[in-house]
Write a structure and sequence with these properties.
Elements lengths: L3 H7 L3 H13 L6 H28 L13 H18 L6 H18 L8 H25 L7 H17 L5 H13 L7 H5 L10
Helix pairs in contact: 1-5, 2-4, 2-7, 3-4, 3-6, 3-8, 4-5, 4-6, 5-6
Length: 212
């Protein structure tokens, strides 16, 4: 059985976030189409920056020892880029307190990011940078949407499908370990036989837990 922190952290898994955002985006009302393009753009950019930071360390050892930084936390970055916008969309047309819903999504993203600390999956610097990146992306998307005053509701069926995708697809992809894929990509790109690990940054002889 998963612990509380593991269950909370699972909500920030890319195997749940991408299906959630994709299904929701596919059934957006016409009034939200400009938001879709802005959201898709920032999610791609945030994911690319996060991935690049991980590959840079795993493949070439580019990190910051004094910050204990080996790559941006994907859970922190992607959760904060997805959940504030998702909550805003689900409340749009149903509530006048859209900002409060976006803040609730932000709170969930922050909680997911914090869960990475007790799990020893990331350092504080990696989490803070991830949150800053993702929240800046969400703020840019929602600021533009609120200025246009788009309030048509996302259909309930679409919302249920998005939630169902976020809960079932991770189970179907349980054997897919994204961290291992990133590590393999880093080895291939750098030509190294073994990826850099956190203990290489710290100069410790005993390996610490890996980033995820």
């Amino acid at each position: 059985m998963m612990t509380f922190w593991e269950s909370l952290s699972a909500l920030g898994d890319s195997r749940a976030l991408f299906p959630l955002a994709t299904v929701l985006a596919l059934f957006l009302p016409t009034s939200h189409r400009r938001l879709l393009w802005r959201w898709a753009a920032v999610v791609i950019v945030v994911a690319a920056i996060t991935l690049a930071s991980k590959i840079a360390f795993m493949g070439w050892g580019f990190g910051l020892e004094y910050l204990d930084f080996t790559g941006i936390s994907g859970h922190a970055a992607m959760s904060s880029a997805v959940y504030p916008v998702t909550f805003w969309l689900l409340a749009s047309g149903r509530s006048r307190r859209l900002r409060a819903w976006a803040l609730a999504g932000t709170g969930l993203a922050v909680a997911i990011a914090v869960s990475r600390l007790p799990l020893q999956a990331h350092s504080l610097s990696e989490i803070v940078i991830g949150l800053s990146l993702g929240l800046a992306a969400s703020a840019w998307v929602l600021h533009g949407s609120q200025m246009r005053g788009s309030v048509l509701a996302v259909r309930g069926r679409a919302a249920l499908m998005a939630i169902a995708a976020a809960t079932t697809i991770p189970a179907l992809l349980a054997d897919l370990h994204t961290h291992d894929l990133v590590k393999a990509t880093a080895r291939t790109m750098s030509g190294r036989g073994q990826a850099f690990e956190r203990h290489d940054l710290r100069g410790h002889p005993t390996p610490a837990k890996h980033n995820r």
